[in-house]
Specification:
Blueprint: H1 3-6, E1 14-20, E2 29-30, E3 56-60, E4 69-73, E5 79-86, E6 97-98, E7 104-113, H2 115-124, E8 128-129, H3 135-145, E9 193-194, E10 199-200, E11 205-206, E12 212-213, E13 240-241, E14 247-248
Parallel strand pairs: 1-5
Antiparallel strand pairs: 1-2, 1-3, 3-4, 5-7, 5-8, 6-7, 9-10, 11-12, 13-14
Length: 256
Amino acid sequence: MNNFLADFVASNKSYWIGLNDRKVDGQFRWLDFEDELSYERWAQGEPNNKSRDDNCVQINNNWGRKLKAWTDDNCFAKVKFICERYQESTLCPVGWTLSYVSGTCLKLYVTESSWQEAETTCENHGASLAMIQNDGMNNFLSDLTATEGNSTDGQDREEEILIYRKDCSGCLGNGHVCDTRTGLCHLGCEVGYHGALCEACPNNTFGANCSRKCSDHCGGSTKACNVTTGECLYGCADGFVGDMCFSGKGGCLFEV
């Protein structure tokens, strides 16, 4: 996450999601679904039913700079929330963001509400509180909520916070497929970019989702490589050859 967005990630920021155990205490389910959870991302020591009536669940960032951990809380607590709805066409309605992970449309609401108030608001817009079925969706919501705070008037409003992205560079689809209101890429990232906003790979990384590391034998003080191919930008350190500087001059291959 770049410094611009990191500045907006406030501490103790929480959002209601659809998970709850209001029907049977201790049996958490998504909204009214009966199926047991196939994916969980509880914070350490959670759920703890601290108030003995903690039947609703938030995703929050008390355990890190990005929203990833889940905690149970009293359903009457007032916090922000995330709505989710299915697409009715290839695009989401104005003010909603397409998740390339789930194929659903998402929207942040920054007016603090109880869990039931939040769910009612979602239902009034043909949606429900967000459901999280895997790490990809959990991370996507983390990136989405990091955009909250860049409002045009500084006031809490029941609408999506806007970034007004000028282009879609780094996004799949020839750099044209992104939500210019939130900055999020609809289809994922080109090779050499990562995250929901498809930012360029950090130093010394490259490849799909920046999952590979540049060779330790790249030349130059930064040991930088091309974010797409991994080719060393400034040649090789002494004793190494090749585009990616993986082999010694004698032809031996070295691990990197």
